[in-house]
Amino acid sequence: VVDEERMINEPEFAFEEYPNTLLIETIAPDDMTEAEEIVVGKPKELDKKYTETLAIISPYYLYTGTPPFGYGTQASKVAETVLRAYSFNLKKKNRVLQVGPYEIERLQWEKEDGKFPHHETHGNFVPAELRLMVESFLKRHHAQVDDCAEKTIKEALEKNSDVLTAGRQTHCPFRSQSVTAASAYKYFFDYLTENTGLTGLTCLEWIRAICLTLENETLSHVSLEEKWAEKVKYNRVTKQRVKVHTRTTRRVKTTTKGKENVRKVALHYYTQFASYLKHKERAKKDRRAIASATMGLRMFLRIIEQFHLHLAKVIPGSTISIGGEEKKAKITNNLANDSLNHEVADTTTQGTEDATKWNECLSPGSFALMHRLLFEDSIRAKLGLPRSNEYGRLFSRVAVTGNFMMAIKSIQIGQGTQIRDQEHYSRLEWRDEHIPYMNDQTKEWYQKVSPLMTPDRQYVRASPGMLMGMLNAGSTTLGLLAANHRMNGDTMKVVTLRSSDDSMSLYLASSPHLNRRCIEMNRQNLSLIAINLSTSKTILMKKGIGEYTSWYIDEKFISQYGVETSAIRPQGKNPADDFYSIAKGTASSLQTLTVNPLGASVRLRLGIAGVRRLWRIKREIGKREGVSDKVLLLSDGGKSPWTCMNSHLEETSLREHHAESECERNYLLRVRNPENPFSEEPTPEVAFSKEMGTLVMEITETPRTVFHFTKRSNRTFGGPNQQEQAIEERSYGELLDIIRSVDPTTTIEYPKSGTNIADHLIALLETESIGIGLDEEESEMLQKAINKLKGIEDDDQVDSLDDDWDNL
């Protein structure tokens, strides 16, 4: 009889303790006594050259686990970030600027405010100093600024506004909830079309339509209406019927009249932000709130970011728009610039910098001033520079308008917290009458944020700060303006690398004393534009040692850690496509020098292991009788056929190379049978052939196998609105097929004009029919197609149109 209790309390195997070599070699002191060595378990054995290097940090990165998932309401986190942003305005007087119904936080520091708070965390900036920084920047880069503005505006003129559908979840102001980007775009497009009459909007026309709605006397829009109803509900516990009050929300069509009322409603729609708890947060115990703009403001933000991303590629110091070997080369070239104006620097320090409360401290006002001054003709005339062109002036107006909207923004506070007693549970509402039900912690922040809430108690006014993820590229340019401000280049200089809030600087000076002064001057220069370098987290080392965007440098690049490897995450289509996408992605990375052969091998292993886990594919040797491991497909439990040298090749073709017996060849024929019931038939696609110089019909080169199965969609269309949406989506799909069959060029390039698509198709059909000998039946069919495109449904309409024409 087995004594189960003894087995639980007394383990069968007692493992001997083994000392942690990593900790001993990196943390234990060099001069350990014998007693300490006994406690530690072993003496230090490795040479210092192996342990005194930043490369040893690799084993400390524990990024292998799943990131924590945020749950619960985001209200406290939203209140925390908003209140923090307001608290960083250290002005004592004239803190608020009233613009119509909006209270905008004034963050510009003035003489009457006293001494500038360089040694406190603040969100204030000095406009006069920012102006000098912009002037210095323009002297060096005015040509690049103008070129990038022209490129950005030309793209906005040509590109269709549906680029906004590229995102995932987006805030819909008409539903006060987060919806898919495509749905949010459609609702907003319908709203703009109804109120302006404009259709087929490009990016810049989208901006124009938004501005036109602000001049309307009436505004048609969808609003939410709450209704309370009394219902009788059966209580299973007491077996009684009780009356309960339920609240329902429905969408109603509303018309707002009067220009002032229209502007107030429209701007509220354009400047709302949804709030979420940030998931996938690494190395953080507490959650943070993140934000998502509406389709109104999102276009402004996109155009501003496009300009700064273009600019980042052509100015020194910015790496936000590049990656891989290109980024590495730019970092190396910037750090090699280690001389003053006329001599080599005597003292050099390298700083790995950390900016405190980056998002809460940056001001929409400082961005607006930067975008205004970069294209100000009076400044350019003073500096003897060419005037800005029409593209630059137009971009400046778009950017400043977008920055103004950021200054009057409001953010969704989120659901109330759950409350309960012995019998019931409910949710708080963010109203003063619910204060007695709040705990002390919730009550403390609610009473502070309550004056900032909108009348519907759904949003919080958040004038200062940028919220998380807003204008990352723009803030990079803003941060680079401060480099070398008011410094004498003969005695000191700063070389800065910046990617949003992450920066690394090289401080050069002709003496140790001036080097210390250079470091402090750079800190104060950044402070003048509300960038607060942390004195405790900023690390100053000798030249050649630092960390930048998780790239560690010890004289040379030694490691890159902390990078989220989304490229090796399975797509989730089907096992065969997921395996092939991993291999194809690895081959592309090798071709662009993003990874080396060793990195490619690791990426292949991790990616394939991830796909196996997702689809629960067990590795089985000898699974099929007569089929060797080299021929068995990955999706069927086989080994990987790919290495870093052949990952560009298709799997079954590689397997066929190893097939030796008739049984193995038959196995491949069976799994690649195009008539199998599991996979879809390959659909031909129109593509442009460089070899033939024309459009050709192509079929996917990857052979379909039984493992390229199709998944049944779990999407349901339950409600009446969803059923209408399904019919609408099907109609759009059929419409696209018709357009592409008449004009095949639309498969490779979007139309770039506002021409009505029906008129375009009519012109194409009439042009194509010239010179073709159509018989009477074919001509009649063509005419019917043209009449349908014109909106003529039957012959009676055609006859009436002919009569009208004859009577003219």
TrEMBL record:
Residues in RdRp catalytic domain copies: 337-539
PROSITE patterns in the cross-refs: RDRP_SSRNA_NEG_SEG (PS50525)
Listed GO MF terms: RNA binding; RNA-directed RNA polymerase activity
GO biological process terms on file: viral RNA genome replication
A family per Pfam: Flu_PB1
Name of the molecule in the record: RdRp catalytic domain-containing protein
Taxonomic source organism: Photinus pyralis
